Amino acid sequence: MHKIEHIGIAVKNLETANELYTKLFGTPPYKIESVESEGVNTSFFKSGPNKIELLEATNDNSPIAKFIEKKGEGIHHIAFAVDDIFAEVTRLKSEGFVVLNETPKKGADNKLIVFLHPKSTNGVLIELCQEISV
Ligand code: ZN
Fold first, then answer.
1. 6 CA to middle of ligand 1, Å?
2. What is the Å distance from ligand 1's center to 33 Cα?
3. By the 8 A CB rule, do 46 and 31 touch?
């Protein structure tokens, strides 16, 4: 596993959060994208070498809606970059981690993604992501 690729923050309203984070970083999001399969609208900000992903639910069954209902707005996940997501899934499973989706799926920002269940990672939802080469 490599660097932190981004940190995901659950927000109630993407539009107002985008305004706030634009002020915070002094620059607007470089990407706004809907991931319909996940029930989320996302936006991505760069701050130096770091990336922040904001996530808003598009329906009540969205994992983001459930997260906000339980915990309120805030840090939702930490994403780490990997070179070979399939090999990492195999490795982490053999180490006893609970993988939420064993088949990597297409996430926002041109990535293949896998989530590890927070119950196996001290309460933190961890995302593995691999850039999809074009
Ligand atoms: Zn993410």
1. 6
2. 12
3. no
Instruction: Give per-residue pLDDT as tens, 43-77.
Output: 999 999 999 999 999 999 999 999 999 999 999 99
What is the sign, positive or negative, of the torsion defined by CA atoms of 37, 117, 44, 6? Answer: negative
Distance 78 CA to ligand 1 centre (A): 7
What sign does the dihedral 31-37-41-42 (CA atoms) show? negative
Phi, psi of 84 (to 5 degrees): -135, 95
Nearest-5° angle of CA 129, CA 60, CA 42?
Answer: 35
Distance CA 93, CA 56 (A): 29
CA dihedral 87, 88, 91, 95 (to 10 degrees): -170
- Ligand 1 center to 40 CA (angstroms): 11
Tracing tokens 């180490």 back to the chain, one arrives at 95
A 10 A CB-CB count for 78 gives: 15
Please tell me the predicted confidence (pLDDT) of residue 37: 84
Q: Which residues are within 8 A (CB) of 39 and not within 5 positions of it... i.e. 6 or more apart?
A: 57, 58, 59, 61, 62, 63, 64, 65
